[in-house]
Amino acid sequence: MVANKDLQIRDPFVFPVPSEGKYYLFGSTDANIWGKGTGFNVYVGTDLKEWEGPFPAFRPDENFFSDENFWAPEVHEHQGRYYMFATFRRKDNARLGTAILVSDSLLGPFVPHSDGPLTPEAWNSLDGTLFIDEEQQPWMVFCHEWKDISDGEVCAVRLTEDFKGTIGEPVTLFQASTAPWATHIVSDKIKTNDKYVTDGPYVYKAGNGELLILWASFIERSYAQGVARSASGSILGPWVHEDKALFVSDGGHDMLFRTFDGRLMLTIHTPNKTPNERPIFLEVTEQDGKLEVVGS
């Protein structure tokens, strides 16, 4: 068993299975996620404190389109199968993109489903997540990286029903700088003040029917987690940001899930520095579509 304090993982994603009384924890699990990619592991636990594993959920073969930067796996069940949305750096043009893998088991093995990334080939894109709208149309929400465009964007593109392709062009939902709480990157290496990050979008439908996107950026040097809400109720927005960040203590790349006793739980990694990143689990209250971390 491994405790959270000993578990190096970024971009944690939890898949609860009530019938088993088990939580499946996915994430960026390479010891050096900035280098060669070896695959993704999954951990299994019952109390969000200690975990069995790691179990090898995905291992690439020699024909896989990437061998570097394996990031942010999310797993979603759809029509009886498990689809993993994950970010990889392409061999052919060295750009980041989100591809989809599939498995019949949460433990894997996951295998390639889409023919490489479904994000634009010419973009650096990352952190794709699944959203299915009221008409049962699947979308992928993802980030267009700030390294391409300075002001990072959260975008959405429609998926084909088989999750193998896209329909139409991506739509920009919002830019990082439009959030009142987000600041430009403060770094010893970056000398300008026009670089804004978007990371880790996660779509959540609140109990009052409002559509929210949780996403990460920076407040100076500290990784932070914020919330935007759709004024129309549609994934296409327009999107309005909360004035203040949800979490400001150098943590982010979130998702929300329900515990087996019904609590709404936020998981993020913190601190945002390799190899010290660890998963944490924070109880969240929700009232009239507004989220607040308990005790904050």
From TrEMBL:
<keyword id="KW-0378">Hydrolase</keyword>
<dbReference type="InterPro" id="IPR023296">
    <property type="entry name" value="Glyco_hydro_beta-prop_sf"/>
</dbReference>
<comment type="similarity">
    <text>Belongs to the glycosyl hydrolase 43 family.</text>
</comment>
<comment type="pathway">
    <text>Glycan metabolism; L-arabinan degradation.</text>
</comment>
<dbReference type="GO" id="GO:0016787">
    <property type="term" value="F:hydrolase activity"/>
</dbReference>
<dbReference type="InterPro" id="IPR050727">
    <property type="entry name" value="GH43_arabinanases"/>
</dbReference>
<keyword id="KW-0326">Glycosidase</keyword>
<dbReference type="Pfam" id="PF04616">
    <property type="entry name" value="Glyco_hydro_43"/>
</dbReference>
<protein>
    <submittedName>
        <fullName>Glycoside hydrolase family 43 protein</fullName>
    </submittedName>
</protein>
<dbReference type="InterPro" id="IPR006710">
    <property type="entry name" value="Glyco_hydro_43"/>
</dbReference>
